[in-house]
Amino acid sequence: MIAAIQSMMLEDERFAAATYAAALDKVAIVAITDLAGTIIYANDQFEKLSKYSRGELVGQNHRILNSGHHPRSFFLEMYRTIRGGKIWRGEIKNRAKDGSFYWVDTWIIPLIDSGGTITGYISIRTEITSRKALEGQLSNLNVALSHQHELISHLTHHDALTGLRNFVDADDEAWGCESDQRACVLFIDVDKLKAVNDTLGHATGDALLKKVAERLLTCAPPNASIFRFGGDEFVIILKGDASCRDAKGLADGILQSMAEPISLESSELSVSVSIGIAERSSGRVDANRLLTEADLALRAAKSGGRNCYRIFAPVMEVELRERRQLESDLAKACANGEIVLEYQPIIDAQGGQVVVCEALARWNHPTRGRMQPAEFIPLAEETGLIRQLSACALSQACADAMAWPSQIKVAVNLSTQQCHAGYLIDSVVNALRDSGLPASRLELEVTESLFIGNGDECAAMLRRVHEMGVTIALDDFGTGYSSLSYLRRLPVDVLKIDRTFVAELATSEKARAVVEAICRLADRLGMSTVIEGIETVEQANIARQVGVERMQGFLFGRPVPAAALRL
Length: 567
What we know:
This protein is of the alpha/beta class. 42% of the residues lie in helices and 23% in strands. The chain has 20 helices and 23 strands. Strands 14-15-17-18-19-20-21-22 form an 8-stranded mixed β-barrel. It has a 6-stranded mixed β-sheet with strand order 6-8-9-7-12-13. It has a 5-stranded antiparallel β-sheet with strand order 2-1-5-4-3, sandwiched between helices. Helix 20 links the parallel strand 21 (528-531) and strand 22.
């Protein structure tokens, strides 16, 4: 079409430009301007699109349509093209009379007479507003998809809570695997985060982890890569010829940083971490090996009291193998009859007769010999074997008590996991049923730690057990931070006064006053009192004087097998 117009113009220079335009009125949006850009003709479709009448357009410069969208360079290039006698084509955004905008695909053709002189310009336009809107939407969609892809990529490789890189993305570059330089890894565990989650909620625990991550970033040197390992654990890799001394310096800095309380919106918390350190001093790094060694060192730090660091030593592997062997042995201990019970008597303070015998578990290990509860109960709780051991001990204690005089009770300690796991009621019911022991002859000893986290659930379970007729004793009373609150919430029958008061009964008026106050409180609440750790006649006499009803300790008998009890 454009070529036809130019051909017609060359064949007959008397053929007026308006005549060419009229021929295009039905198929395009047409306007003609003179050399100065003044509009001398506009067809009906041009009027309709621009919303200007022909009278308003003719005599006006084409700039009346300028939208301000295009830069000055855009028009300079256009003028340079058409003034050189060449056809220009492009997409122009114009402004209509009512202020609305529209897009047109535009051809501007120089009008050239037979002498080769440019006499004006004819523009032929096609509206493309809808197409441009669609292109804009697609462009915005592409931008949104690009941002979404970036976000997904970030979330894939970074921890959503702390913003740190996920440990699974620790690559060869992070470990320094491509060189023979020295490298160190620090395995970091936030101490007792579970207690924070249980008492203050997981939202507070998450906020605490974010603050810990921020402090780790502040402490870390430029040659460190920091990762969230998962849960309450972090990993820091030091490379670039890092030495164990560098790792120790970083660990000291982290411990010092964590010593400052962390301020959250609702509270201020003290936090500590345990750190395990492993070093690759020469040769190419074995990432899995180095991490395993750091994990072993971390275990040692936690066993050493937490809030400290330990450096890997080969003996830790030996200890781990021994622990795993002990776990395996413990899993078979009940079935092999290796878990046995010994009983320590609790006597009436005034009459001296035995009223209760407390069951204490012992493990007759086939190679290690007799093991005390402190040596295997924590392991049983960590591995989940405590459920099996507890059920076994409860059943054995009830069965042994059936051979005693009917007025003597048996006391069994409850572990924290027995209530939290929700199987306490079934264990008690089964033990009483299988042994035939009346519920009134069973006493369950609990400590305050039992109620941290699932306090309401544990209290409800104890109430159901108490309704069966089982006695509930609160052990280690006087050492907890909230003992009195539990006296209101729990069906407690007996307060066991902690042995820490006994050593000072004969020398401290304060200790004597505290024990006496506990006895008076228990009396007002309708509870009995037992004091543990009595070893001398003087301690026993003072305990009687201040109102203690029952006593337990080496003065009255050490733990012995059921067959050796004198009742």
